Amino acid sequence: MYYTAASFLALLGLASAQRLHVVSVSGEGDWALKFSPDNLKAAVGDMIQFQFRAGNHSVVQSNFDNPCTPIKMHTGAEGFYSGYQLVAASEAMDMIPTYTVMVRDDKPMWVYCSQARHCQNGMTMVVNENTAANSSRSLTEYRRLAAEAPDNLAGDVAGTGGETGTAPEPTGTPGNEETPTTPGGGNTAVETPGAGATSSPGSGATPTGTAGGAASGTQPANGPATSIAQGEGSMVTVTSPMGFFALVAALFML
User: Fold this and answer.
1) In sequence order, what DSSP letters do the residues of 6-64 get, joined into one string?
2) Architecture field, domain 20-239
Protein backbone atom coordinates (compact mmCIF):
# COMPACT_ATOMS: atom_id res chain seq x y z
CA MET A 1 0.00 0.00 0.00
CA TYR A 2 1.23 3.50 -0.86
CA TYR A 3 0.29 6.53 1.16
CA THR A 4 1.53 10.09 1.51
CA ALA A 5 2.68 11.97 4.57
CA ALA A 6 -0.39 14.14 4.20
CA SER A 7 -2.75 11.17 4.42
CA PHE A 8 -0.91 9.87 7.48
CA LEU A 9 -1.19 13.27 9.17
CA ALA A 10 -4.90 13.35 8.36
CA LEU A 11 -5.35 10.01 10.11
CA LEU A 12 -3.31 11.28 13.03
CA GLY A 13 -5.60 14.31 13.26
CA LEU A 14 -8.69 12.12 13.40
CA ALA A 15 -7.18 10.04 16.18
CA SER A 16 -6.10 13.04 18.21
CA ALA A 17 -9.60 14.53 18.02
CA GLN A 18 -10.82 12.09 20.66
CA ARG A 19 -10.49 13.63 24.11
CA LEU A 20 -11.01 12.40 27.65
CA HIS A 21 -12.83 14.55 30.21
CA VAL A 22 -12.49 13.79 33.92
CA VAL A 23 -15.37 14.48 36.29
CA SER A 24 -14.86 14.22 40.06
CA VAL A 25 -17.68 12.49 41.90
CA SER A 26 -17.99 14.00 45.38
CA GLY A 27 -15.04 14.88 47.59
CA GLU A 28 -14.29 16.27 51.02
CA GLY A 29 -15.79 19.35 52.68
CA ASP A 30 -17.39 21.77 50.22
CA TRP A 31 -17.01 19.23 47.40
CA ALA A 32 -19.19 16.57 49.04
CA LEU A 33 -22.30 15.54 47.11
CA LYS A 34 -21.22 17.31 43.92
CA PHE A 35 -20.04 16.51 40.42
CA SER A 36 -17.11 18.68 39.35
CA PRO A 37 -17.44 20.03 36.75
CA ASP A 38 -21.22 19.74 36.73
CA ASN A 39 -21.82 21.37 33.33
CA LEU A 40 -19.58 19.83 30.69
CA LYS A 41 -19.18 20.22 26.93
CA ALA A 42 -17.97 17.14 25.05
CA ALA A 43 -17.78 16.26 21.36
CA VAL A 44 -19.09 13.10 19.76
CA GLY A 45 -16.49 10.38 20.30
CA ASP A 46 -15.06 11.96 23.45
CA MET A 47 -14.68 9.87 26.60
CA ILE A 48 -15.99 10.96 30.00
CA GLN A 49 -14.34 9.38 33.03
CA PHE A 50 -16.09 9.73 36.37
CA GLN A 51 -13.57 9.52 39.22
CA PHE A 52 -15.11 8.65 42.60
CA ARG A 53 -13.18 10.59 45.23
CA ALA A 54 -15.10 10.06 48.47
CA GLY A 55 -17.94 8.09 50.01
CA ASN A 56 -20.15 5.60 48.17
CA HIS A 57 -21.79 7.12 45.10
CA SER A 58 -23.12 6.19 41.68
CA VAL A 59 -23.56 7.71 38.23
CA VAL A 60 -26.94 7.23 36.52
CA GLN A 61 -28.32 8.70 33.30
CA SER A 62 -31.85 10.11 33.32
CA ASN A 63 -33.88 12.27 30.98
CA PHE A 64 -34.63 15.91 31.75
CA ASP A 65 -38.28 15.53 32.68
CA ASN A 66 -37.80 12.66 35.14
CA PRO A 67 -34.68 13.30 37.23
CA CYS A 68 -33.59 10.78 39.85
CA THR A 69 -34.91 7.84 37.79
CA PRO A 70 -33.09 5.84 35.07
CA ILE A 71 -33.73 7.05 31.54
CA LYS A 72 -35.04 3.68 30.35
CA MET A 73 -38.01 3.85 32.70
CA HIS A 74 -39.45 6.74 30.70
CA THR A 75 -37.93 6.77 27.20
CA GLY A 76 -36.83 3.22 26.35
CA ALA A 77 -33.23 4.38 25.86
CA GLU A 78 -30.86 2.06 27.69
CA GLY A 79 -28.86 4.66 29.61
CA PHE A 80 -25.80 4.08 31.79
CA TYR A 81 -25.35 3.11 35.43
CA SER A 82 -22.02 2.78 37.21
CA GLY A 83 -23.21 0.87 40.25
CA TYR A 84 -22.27 2.04 43.73
CA GLN A 85 -18.55 2.79 43.97
CA LEU A 86 -17.17 2.54 47.51
CA VAL A 87 -14.01 4.64 47.54
CA ALA A 88 -12.67 3.13 50.79
CA ALA A 89 -12.34 -0.27 49.10
CA SER A 90 -9.67 1.11 46.73
CA GLU A 91 -7.97 3.66 48.99
CA ALA A 92 -5.74 1.05 50.63
CA MET A 93 -4.03 0.69 47.24
CA ASP A 94 -3.90 4.49 46.71
CA MET A 95 -6.44 4.09 43.93
CA ILE A 96 -9.96 5.37 43.32
CA PRO A 97 -12.83 3.78 41.36
CA THR A 98 -13.60 5.10 37.87
CA TYR A 99 -16.42 4.72 35.37
CA THR A 100 -15.92 5.71 31.72
CA VAL A 101 -18.47 6.28 28.96
CA MET A 102 -18.22 7.46 25.35
CA VAL A 103 -20.27 10.33 23.93
CA ARG A 104 -22.21 9.14 20.89
CA ASP A 105 -24.21 12.25 20.00
CA ASP A 106 -24.46 15.90 20.96
CA LYS A 107 -27.80 15.71 22.77
CA PRO A 108 -27.86 16.77 26.44
CA MET A 109 -27.13 13.97 28.90
CA TRP A 110 -28.57 14.39 32.39
CA VAL A 111 -26.75 12.60 35.20
CA TYR A 112 -27.40 12.03 38.91
CA CYS A 113 -26.25 10.01 41.93
CA SER A 114 -28.78 7.41 43.11
CA GLN A 115 -27.46 7.09 46.67
CA ALA A 116 -30.01 7.97 49.42
CA ARG A 117 -31.46 11.39 48.45
CA HIS A 118 -28.29 12.75 46.86
CA CYS A 119 -30.12 13.51 43.61
CA GLN A 120 -32.78 15.53 45.42
CA ASN A 121 -30.03 17.35 47.31
CA GLY A 122 -28.37 18.58 44.12
CA MET A 123 -25.87 15.85 43.15
CA THR A 124 -26.67 16.20 39.46
CA MET A 125 -24.91 17.33 36.28
CA VAL A 126 -25.35 17.73 32.54
CA VAL A 127 -23.22 17.01 29.50
CA ASN A 128 -23.89 19.28 26.50
CA GLU A 129 -26.58 21.49 28.00
CA ASN A 130 -28.38 23.27 25.14
CA THR A 131 -30.28 26.28 26.47
CA ALA A 132 -29.99 27.91 23.05
CA ALA A 133 -32.49 25.37 21.74
CA ASN A 134 -34.69 25.50 24.85
CA SER A 135 -33.88 27.97 27.60
CA SER A 136 -36.06 26.14 30.13
CA ARG A 137 -34.00 22.94 29.90
CA SER A 138 -31.10 24.12 32.02
CA LEU A 139 -29.13 22.47 34.80
CA THR A 140 -30.76 24.88 37.24
CA GLU A 141 -34.24 23.75 36.19
CA TYR A 142 -33.19 20.08 36.21
CA ARG A 143 -32.07 20.48 39.82
CA ARG A 144 -35.34 22.15 40.73
CA LEU A 145 -37.24 19.18 39.31
CA ALA A 146 -34.87 16.77 41.06
CA ALA A 147 -35.52 18.42 44.43
CA GLU A 148 -39.20 17.57 43.99
CA ALA A 149 -38.66 13.97 42.81
CA PRO A 150 -40.42 11.45 45.08
CA ASP A 151 -37.83 8.69 44.59
CA ASN A 152 -34.14 8.27 43.83
CA LEU A 153 -33.65 5.08 41.83
CA ALA A 154 -30.59 3.21 40.60
CA GLY A 155 -30.24 0.96 37.58
CA ASP A 156 -30.56 -2.81 37.49
CA VAL A 157 -27.05 -3.92 36.55
CA ALA A 158 -23.90 -2.16 37.76
CA GLY A 159 -21.49 -1.14 35.03
CA THR A 160 -23.96 -1.05 32.15
CA GLY A 161 -23.31 1.49 29.41
CA GLY A 162 -19.67 2.08 30.38
CA GLU A 163 -16.49 0.57 31.83
CA THR A 164 -15.47 0.45 35.48
CA GLY A 165 -11.84 0.60 36.54
CA THR A 166 -9.42 2.38 38.88
CA ALA A 167 -7.06 5.35 38.70
CA PRO A 168 -4.30 6.70 40.98
CA GLU A 169 -5.77 8.61 43.90
CA PRO A 170 -5.63 12.39 43.21
CA THR A 171 -4.00 14.64 45.77
CA GLY A 172 -5.54 17.94 44.70
CA THR A 173 -8.86 19.64 45.35
CA PRO A 174 -11.72 19.27 42.87
CA GLY A 175 -12.96 22.35 41.13
CA ASN A 176 -10.03 23.67 39.11
CA GLU A 177 -9.08 22.94 35.52
CA GLU A 178 -5.74 21.40 34.61
CA THR A 179 -3.53 22.07 31.65
CA PRO A 180 -4.03 19.36 29.02
CA THR A 181 -1.67 16.44 29.47
CA THR A 182 0.29 14.83 26.66
CA PRO A 183 -0.28 11.06 26.37
CA GLY A 184 2.59 9.17 27.91
CA GLY A 185 3.37 12.01 30.31
CA GLY A 186 3.95 11.60 34.01
CA ASN A 187 0.30 11.67 35.05
CA THR A 188 -1.17 9.52 32.28
CA ALA A 189 -1.80 5.84 32.97
CA VAL A 190 -3.39 3.10 30.91
CA GLU A 191 -5.74 0.79 32.76
CA THR A 192 -7.57 -2.38 31.88
CA PRO A 193 -11.33 -1.78 32.05
CA GLY A 194 -12.87 -3.48 35.03
CA ALA A 195 -9.60 -4.25 36.77
CA GLY A 196 -9.67 -3.43 40.45
CA ALA A 197 -13.09 -1.85 40.35
CA THR A 198 -15.41 -2.20 43.30
CA SER A 199 -19.17 -1.99 43.12
CA SER A 200 -21.09 -2.07 46.37
CA PRO A 201 -24.74 -1.43 47.19
CA GLY A 202 -25.09 1.89 48.94
CA SER A 203 -26.58 2.25 52.38
CA GLY A 204 -29.93 3.95 52.35
CA ALA A 205 -30.58 3.31 48.65
CA THR A 206 -32.00 0.21 47.05
CA PRO A 207 -30.84 -0.35 43.46
CA THR A 208 -34.05 -0.42 41.43
CA GLY A 209 -35.21 0.74 38.03
CA THR A 210 -34.51 -0.62 34.59
CA ALA A 211 -31.42 1.04 33.20
CA GLY A 212 -29.02 -1.24 31.37
CA GLY A 213 -27.05 -1.82 28.18
CA ALA A 214 -25.51 0.77 25.89
CA ALA A 215 -26.68 4.30 26.53
CA SER A 216 -28.46 6.72 24.28
CA GLY A 217 -25.74 9.30 23.90
CA THR A 218 -23.03 6.97 25.18
CA GLN A 219 -21.54 3.58 24.57
CA PRO A 220 -19.20 1.30 26.53
CA ALA A 221 -15.56 2.29 26.28
CA ASN A 222 -14.19 -0.68 24.38
CA GLY A 223 -10.57 -1.68 24.93
CA PRO A 224 -8.11 -0.30 27.49
CA ALA A 225 -9.26 3.02 28.87
CA THR A 226 -6.99 5.98 29.52
CA SER A 227 -7.17 7.05 33.13
CA ILE A 228 -5.87 10.42 34.22
CA ALA A 229 -4.52 11.30 37.65
CA GLN A 230 -6.17 14.61 38.43
CA GLY A 231 -3.49 16.41 40.38
CA GLU A 232 -4.94 19.86 41.13
CA GLY A 233 -7.86 19.73 38.73
CA SER A 234 -11.31 18.24 38.59
CA MET A 235 -11.45 18.13 34.80
CA VAL A 236 -8.70 17.08 32.42
CA THR A 237 -9.02 17.15 28.66
CA VAL A 238 -6.29 15.16 26.96
CA THR A 239 -5.62 13.58 23.61
CA SER A 240 -6.23 9.85 23.86
CA PRO A 241 -3.49 7.64 22.36
CA MET A 242 -5.83 4.70 21.82
CA GLY A 243 -7.43 5.99 18.63
CA PHE A 244 -4.00 6.75 17.20
CA PHE A 245 -2.71 3.24 17.88
CA ALA A 246 -5.78 1.72 16.27
CA LEU A 247 -5.45 3.84 13.14
CA VAL A 248 -1.75 3.14 12.79
CA ALA A 249 -2.38 -0.59 13.17
CA ALA A 250 -5.10 -0.47 10.52
CA LEU A 251 -2.87 1.56 8.22
CA PHE A 252 -0.07 -0.97 8.22
CA MET A 253 -2.43 -3.92 7.83
CA LEU A 254 -3.66 -2.58 4.47
Assistant:
1) HHHHHHHHHHHT-EEEEEEE--SGGGTT-EESSEE---TT-EEEEEE-SSEE--EEE-S
2) Sandwich (2.60)
